[in-house]
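job 3f2a | input accepted
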Amino acid sequence: MVNYREIIRLKCLNHSKSQIATSLHCSRNTVTEVCDLAEQKGLLVWPLSDELTDTDIRKLLYPGRVTESGRKMPDYAYIHKELAKPGVTLTLLWSEYCEQCEAEKAIPYQYTQFCDYYKAFVYKTKATMRIKRKPGELLEVDWVGNTL
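job 3f2a | predicted structure (148 res):
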């Protein structure tokens, strides 16, 4: 995503468009377009309001562009809870998600993107549990899963 705030900040500090493009790893055409549109909209001043995010700036500069992907985001808290049940896999939950999207006339994510978002959700929640005990004091047996 284009860092609109940084483009405006560097332009207000009198950096050239080539320097801005190099430092932000974007094209000079993008920098030129953003600077021209920001000047037309009166946004080429620094400092900008802290409440004005990159998303807000994009909406101001490009009001006609569609920013929504039209895809339905799955309920990952529910998915995480369902995965704790025996015999439930991400593939099964993804197929249920696709059926739900089809019923609601929404566009589902493909399996790889579904799994990537789930992995990000799990990383963000970081559900861990620490057991404070002395080594060798207790014996714990894990009885989860199918029996032999």
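job 3f2a | Helices lie at 4-12, 17-24, 28-41, 54-61, 76-83, 90-103, 111-125.
job 3f2a | closed
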